[in-house]
Specification:
Layout: H1 9-21, E1 32-36, E2 42-47, H2 78-85, E3 95-100, H3 104-112, E4 117-122, H4 129-141, E5 144-147
Parallel strand pairs: 3-4, 4-5
Antiparallel strand pairs: 1-2, 1-3
Helix pairs in contact: 3-4
Length: 159
């Protein structure tokens, strides 16, 4: 008989997003994303970090002060990174797993590239204008979104 306590596809893909988040060098927020097709094949992954070619040792990582001296103008979000990392053509009808609900800027990119579903782990900024705008755009564009259901076994990777 086959094993019955294996993890679901949702658990697997959110696990990949969570592992990807561990690549982030952001000292306060680590976000990961994983894009999959309708056949449950991983198409791309991403995490929040500085754009390629920008030395993250000299870039600002703070959250306050002069906008040119904090991270917000510079960091590429995990969702956008996963879209930009994809080299296989169309993302039409794909599903994006993210450890954080996408901001309005990432929502635009998600819609534009044809992703049709977003599964998120945290919606801690639900009351912000950015997240409200994301949900409005997703609703208009027919992109479904749902919270990841935390259930089943705990998986720990300790290397």
């Amino acid at each position: 008989m086959k094993r019955t306590d294996y993890i679901s596809w949702d658990q697997y893909f959110m696990g990949i997003a969570m592992l990807s988040a561990q690549r982030s060098k952001d000292p306060s927020t680590q976000v990961g994303a994983c894009i999959v097709d309708r056949s449950n094949r991983i198409l791309s992954v991403g995490y929040n970090g500085m754009p390629a070619g920008c030395e993250d040792d000299v870039m600002p990582w703070g959250k306050i002060g002069n906008p040119l001296d904090n991270k917000y103008f510079y960091v590429c979000h995990a969702e956008l990174n996963s879209i930009l990392n994809y080299r296989g053509g169309s993302l039409k009808d794909a599903c994006l797993y993210s450890t954080l609900f996408p901001c309005n800027e990432c929502a635009k990119a998600i819609i534009q590239c044809g992703i049709k579903e977003v599964v998120y782990l945290s919606d801690k900024y639900a009351s912000t204008d950015s997240t409200i705008a994301s949900k409005r755009m997703f609703d208009m564009a027919g992109v479904s979104y749902r919270a990841f259901e935390v259930k089943g076994k705990k998986i720990v990777v300790d290397l």
